[in-house]
Write a structure and sequence with these properties.
This protein is an alpha/beta fold. The chain has a single domain, classed as Rossmann fold (3-Layer(aba) Sandwich). It has helices spanning about 15-25, 35-45, 60-65, 95-105, 110-125, 135-140, 155-165, 175-190, 215-230, and strands spanning about 5-10, 30-35, 50, 55, 70-75, 80-85, 90, 130-135, 145-150, 205. The N and C termini lie close together (about 5 Å). It binds 2'-deoxycytidine-5'-monophosphate. 2'-deoxycytidine-5'-monophosphate binds near residues 12, 39 and 107.
Length: about 230
């Protein structure tokens, strides 16, 4: 069977990771969460005191970026990939609000993006990969055979993210804070100079505001099968 690259891009907290993960499982492909890589670099900056408030010591990060190793390993119990920063499992730490509120600063830096994109391209060399992010179909894999651009209404995305944080035991963060953080990240993602979030010309749009997870999966598998059947 033809091996392809599936690029899933879109706004934050729209369920694209869940979708991409399930698709990868269903079709036996590797799943890579590229946002987790930017989050891991941000966590590194926090852990090494490179932030003074929202001010980042970019020169220090530039001199240390080569020491930052990000890997994904499968958790055998959940059968899901988890993020490792220099050998340490940071899957939970990279999902906190502290990281979410600083990640846009880190992911806007060209030298950070260059390092992450190079590593992502290496991971996709053999194809059979589903990668989600913001610039996967435009910059990382412009030749990806299947490109999906996911969107949903901001209030719906904020509610989903809020429910997720609550389920993880965060009772401090309010819905309004989540919505504000999400709107801010949407704005920063779309307006940054380096690889802004935008739909690739050849991507297919999916608005999942009013779709169930099952409906999305069926939609995605249909698209995948169409490509595979057209490209034997
Ligand atoms: O998908 P996410 O919310 O976990 O991503 C975290 C941040 O990383 C998000 O604010 C945008 C950035 N990001 C990016 O710039 N490029 C990617 N390919 C993936 C994520």
């Amino acid at each position: 069977m033809k091996k392809i690259v599936v690029a899933v891009d879109g706004f934050s907290s729209n369920g694209k990771s869940t979708m991409a993960k399930s698709l990868a499982k269903e079709i036996g492909y590797i799943y890579i969460d590229s946002g987790a890589m930017y989050r891991a670099v941000t966590l590194y900056c926090i852990q090494h005191n490179l932030f003074r408030g929202d001010e980042l010591d970019e020169n220090k990060l530039l001199s240390e970026i080569k020491n930052i190793e990000i890997k994904f390993r499968l958790n055998k119990d959940t059968n899901l990939p988890e993020t490792y920063l220099n050998g340490e499992n940071v899957e939970a730490e990279i999902r906190t609000m502290e990281v979410s509120s600083k990640v846009s600063i880190v992911s806007a830096l060209p030298f950070v993006r260059q390092a992450m994109v190079a590593s992502q391209q290496t991971m996709g060399k053999e194809k059979e990969i589903v990668m989600d992010g913001r610039d996967i179909g435009t910059v990382v894999f412009p030749d990806a055979e299947l490109k999906i651009f996911v969107t949903a209404e901001p209030e719906i995305r904020a509610q989903r993210r809020f429910d997720e944080l609550k389920a993880k035991g965060d009772n401090k963060t309010t819905y309004e804070e989540v919505l504000e953080n999400l709107r801010m990240r949407d704005h920063l993602d779309q307006t940054r100079e380096e690889s802004p979030l935008k739909m690739a010309d050849d991507a297919i749009l999916l608005d999942n505001s009013y779709m169930t997870i099952d409906e999305q999966m069926q939609w995605l598998i249909d698209k995948f099968n169409q490509i595979i059947n057209n490209q034997k």
